[in-house]
Structures are given as structure tokens and as C-alpha cells.
């Protein structure tokens, strides 16, 4: 009978430890994902901004040497990431592929113009700066028109600002919730040992002596939960890098190392603080209050 009871207690203890480790690991994993999102918000925003294309349409009278000089000067400009020359024949071929028929057959001629497509650096993608760039390019006598999607640029700029703000708000809220969840799991595990704590106190054990084994044990659980979360995060990092290589996730490994180290430290720190205050609470209770 006693052996059966001991086995029951062991299973109960293991179940308690498992729930604490699992809750710590899950919460830290989600915090790590959110941290990755926060750290890469600008990179993701820059990626979308750099998809904006400014098309410089040239007059038919433009000389080949003028086109070549302009393409090179645009490619070297500080606001330009890439400048690609697209002949009217290439543009017609591309347009034919998109609509599924050759429009030149019924028009009898090619109405398109030679152009230079500019992909801008992300720092220059805003309605004001693009308009300034367009006006500067339009001054060239052989430039017919400078075209870009104005509504899209405005919408993208506005949404990037909103995204950055709400990600910071979500991060703050979720961090607070994460601390509460880990704290609750640890407090529940210590709650089941409240009578042991009070018994040790009644026989003369100091508060520091009583707290020490609880703190050390839960720090170990915090370390284990942190390691599990870190391994899961590394797996996610590799998956993202394989499927979204344009984000350049591993271009700056120092950032990822700092993020993983922060997850580890956070797991240990929350475990220590939560255990300290949870044990302190039960140490300060009167014996008759332990039953409530």
C-alpha cells in the first residue's frame, strides 16, 4: 500500500514538473518568435518597399548613347538598388505573355516605349521622396514619362508605420501575459508543497534555507524549458531561412544568438523571481490560512 502511494506521489511530482517545463518552453518559444518578428520588422518592411518599381519611359527619339548613360547613372544613384533597361520589344513580349495574345497583330505596330525600371532602396520609398526623384528624372529631355504606383506607395508607407507600432504593443502585452503564465505554473507547483514549507518553518528552518531548494529546482526546470524552446526556435529559424531566403535571416547571426540568449536568460530569471515570491507568500501565511 505504501509503495503504491509512493509511486502515486512520484507520478504526481513528475506530472507537476512536466507541466511547468512545458508551459515555460511554450511561452518562451512564442516569445522568441515574437522577438524575431520585432527584430526583423524593418527588414521585412524594407523587403516589401524594395518591390516598388519606378518606370522611366523614354522618347523614341532618345539616342542609344543617352539611354546607356542614363541607365548607368540611375544604377549608381544612391536611391537606386537596381536599374534595368527594358526595350519596347521586350516589353511587348512580356505583355503578350501576360494577356495571352499578341496585341501587335491587330494594332499593326508596337505602341510601347523603351524604359528603364528602377528598384529603389527602401529608405527612399515614401510618397515625398519618390515624387522628388521622379521630378528630377523628368528634367531630362529624352524622358517621356516617369511612372509608379502612387496609391500603393502611400498605402505601403502608412501600413509599415502601423505595423511597427502594433507589433511593439503586442510584444509588451504578450511579454506580460507570458510572465503571468510561467508565474502561475510555478505557483501551482509550490502550492502543492505549502504544508511541507510550513512544517519546515515550524521546526526552525530559516526562510532562506526553505526557499533555496525550491529556487534551485525551479531554475533547473526553467533551464530545461529554455533549452527546449531554443531548440524549437532554431528549427523555425532554419525553416524560415530555407523558405524565405530573401529575408536574409542568417546574414547577421549575432542578432539570432542574442535573441536565443535572451530567451534562455528570461526563462531562468522568471523562474527565479516567480519561485522566490511564491515561496515567500506561503512562508508569510498563518497555518490556518494554508487551507484556503
Which key terms come to mind for this protein?
71% helix; 2 domains; 292 residues; alpha+beta
The biggest sheet, with number of strands, parallel, antiparallel or mixed sense and barrel status, is: 4 strands, antiparallel
Share of residues in helices: over 70%
| Total of domains | 2
- Cα distance spanning the termini: 30 Å
Output the number of helix runs.
Answer: 10
Arithmetic mean of pLDDT: 79
Based on CA inertia axes, which overall geometry fits? rod-shaped
Instruction: Output the radius of gyration.
Output: 31 Å
What low-confidence regions span 5 or more consecutive residues with pLDDT below 50? none
Strand content: 5-15%
Q: Report the structural category.
A: alpha+beta
Beta strands, count: 4
Strands ordered across the widest β-sheet:
2-3-1-4
What is the H/E string? HHEHEHHEHEHHHH
Amino acid at each position: 500500500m505504501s509503495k503504491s502511494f509512493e509511486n502515486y506521489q512520484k507520478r504526481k511530482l513528475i506530472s507537476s514538473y512536466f507541466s511547468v517545463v512545458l508551459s515555460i518552453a511554450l511561452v518562451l518559444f512564442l516569445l522568441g518568435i515574437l522577438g524575431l518578428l520585432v527584430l526583423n520588422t524593418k527588414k521585412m518592411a524594407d523587403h516589401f518597399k524594395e518591390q516598388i518599381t519606378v518606370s522611366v519611359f523614354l522618347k523614341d527619339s532618345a539616342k542609344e548613347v543617352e539611354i546607356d548613360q542614363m541607365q548607368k547613372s540611375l544604377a549608381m544613384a544612391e536611391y537606386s538598388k537596381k536599374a534595368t533597361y527594358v526595350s519596347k520589344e521586350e516589353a511587348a513580349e512580356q505583355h503578350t505573355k501576360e494577356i495571352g495574345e499578341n496585341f501587335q497583330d491587330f494594332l499593326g505596330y508596337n505602341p510601347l516605349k523603351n524604359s528603364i525600371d528602377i528598384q529603389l532602396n527602401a529608405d527612399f520609398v515614401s510618397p515625398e521622396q519618390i515624387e522628388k526623384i521622379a521630378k528630377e528624372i523628368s528634367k531630362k529631355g529624352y524622358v517621356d514619362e516617369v511612372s509608379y504606383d502612387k496609391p500603393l506607395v502611400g498605402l505601403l508607407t502608412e501600413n509599415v508605420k502601423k505595423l511597427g507600432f502594433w507589433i511593439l504593443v503586442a510584444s509588451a502585452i504578450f511579454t506580460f501575459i507570458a510572465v503571468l503564465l510561467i508565474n502561475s505554473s510555478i505557483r501551482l507547483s509550490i502550492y502543492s508543497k505549502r504544508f511541507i514549507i510550513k512544517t519546515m518553518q515550524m521546526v526552525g528552518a530559516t526562510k532562506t534555507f526553505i526557499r533555496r531548494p525550491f529556487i534551485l529546482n525551479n531554475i533547473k526546470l526553467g533551464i530545461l524549458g529554455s533549452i527546449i524552446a531554443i531548440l524549437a526556435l532554431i528549427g523555425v529559424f532554419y525553416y524560415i531561412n530555407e523558405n524565405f531566403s530573401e529575408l536574409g535571416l542568417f546574414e547577421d547571426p549575432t542578432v539570432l544568438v542574442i535573441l536565443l540568449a535572451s530567451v534562455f536568460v528570461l526563462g531562468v530569471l522568471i523562474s527565479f523571481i516567480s519561485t522566490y515570491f511564491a515561496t515567500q507568500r506561503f512562508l508569510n501565511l498563518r497555518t490556518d490560512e494554508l487551507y484556503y
